[in-house]
Amino acid sequence: MKVIVNGEPRELPAGTTVAAAVAAVSAAPSGVAAALNDEVVRRASWEATPLRDGDRLEVLTAVQGG
């Protein structure tokens, strides 16, 4: 299936979850947020939230500093 992750088209296997997609683009285990089709997905729901063809996923990482 084709999805957009952080503005880039990606080909992912059917049934890929938000958790798997986040792990593929972010090495940081904490300080990460995900929005699927402009809706924030709670971390507790990442494993149970499958991606579908055409979805848009934004993975955001908090950066410390100023």
Describe the overall structure.
The chain has a single domain, classed as Beta-grasp domain (Ubiquitin-like (UB roll)). The protein is built from one helix and five strands. The chain has one helix at 18-25; strands at 2-5, 8-11, 32-36, 39-41, 56-61. A hairpin with a 2-residue loop joins β1 and β2. The longest helix is centred in the first third of the chain and has 8 residues, at 18-25. The protein is globular and about 40 Å long. It starts with a strand and ends in a 5-residue tail after the last strand.
Strand-pairing-aware structural class: mainly beta
| Principal-axis shape | globular
* Spatial ordering of strands, largest sheet: 2-1-5-3-4
Major sheet: size, sense and barrel closure?
Answer: 5 strands, mixed
Order of helices and strands: EEHEEE
From the 3D coordinates, which CATH architecture would you assign? Roll
* CATH-defined superfamily: Beta-grasp domain
CATH topology: Ubiquitin-like (UB roll)
What is the secondary structure topology, with strand pairs?
Layout: E1 2-5, E2 8-11, H1 18-25, E3 32-36, E4 39-41, E5 56-61
Parallel strand pairs: 1-5
Antiparallel strand pairs: 1-2, 3-4, 3-5
